[in-house]
Amino acid sequence: MKTPDLTGLATVSSEFIEDWLTALRGHCRDAQMASFLDRSGMTAHAGNPAQRVTLDQIFRLYQIAAVETEDEMMGLWSRPIRARALQHLLTTVREASSLPSALYRFSTFWNLLLDDHQFALREFGDDVVLSLVPQGDPEVQRFGHMLILKLAHGLLSWLAGYEVPVRAVQFAFECPEFAEDYSTIFPVQVSFGARHSSISFERSKLGPPQARSTHELITFLNRAPRDWIFTSCWEHTQSLRIREFLYQANWVDCHLVDAAKALRITPRTLIRRLDADGTSFQAIKDGLRRDIAIRDLQDGRKTTEEISQDVGFSSAANFHRAFRRWTGVTPSSYRRANS
């Protein structure tokens, strides 16, 4: 069965992208920044912790800002990453004879461009670890660290033709309040407070790369960063597999036992695995409710009462209370801010 594309539903907190917006503001004029936010549908999100940001909005902002700032990393690093750098990176890694070799090419490419960090590629037993090592004492750019490590994973997955399993992701900053947002991006539970930001893979699970044509390379570039942030063939964490199951099923009436049956595991095992992901079945279901409600409020074609019924609330009052708990504002306020 083909995996549905959930990127139109997936959301992260506005705090998750605030480092990026701060870097952008220092990289362009106020009017230009306002234009970026308006054209990507994110004007209401800037500086508003109550807002949720869809991955589609992140993709649109990247595609606008990367071109118009003439920096493909949009101020996230001390040196601008000039146009066509990503194209050259893909051209370099697609010639690799193995996925570990592709990681080596990835690291050497970025080490020619970055001043404040350098990549180190090391092996520990069966683990292949790509670490981002600071040069001197640069300020940690949380969004930048996330984006470049996810780019490494996205490129490996593109070369392999499937979402490459990740053994671990660690970040060199303390656990933020929006830590749960990282589970939307990485197919493994993320840890914080590490010496260096890093991503690791098991060599034995790194299969051979596929031959990638120029047409496929151009398609990847045109869709950037969609296909490296949210890979199209993903087998994500347990929580995202549950989200996928709910989205395909009559999810409002689904219970944990239904999800466990679909995954061919016992309810007790599912509870244990979700606990390891730092979540619960109800939290995943509520997150899907929230993201469907946000999508429909932004779309503007349904009334609040219709949305309330669609996402399974017995009354509009219950929906209002839940939505305020999720976002800090009422559905009507959220709609007005995003209209």
UniProtKB/TrEMBL annotation:
Domain HTH araC/xylS-type as annotated: residue spans: 240-337
Coiled coil: none
Family annotation (PROSITE patterns): HTH_ARAC_FAMILY_2
Gene Ontology CC: one annotated term: cytosol
Domain of life: Bacteria
SMART domains: HTH_ARAC (SM00342)
UniProt GO MF annotations: DNA-binding transcription factor activity; transcription cis-regulatory region binding
Assigned keywords, A-Z: DNA-binding, Plasmid, Transcription, Transcription regulation
This protein's name: Putative transcriptional regulator, AraC family
Organism encoding this protein: Phaeobacter porticola
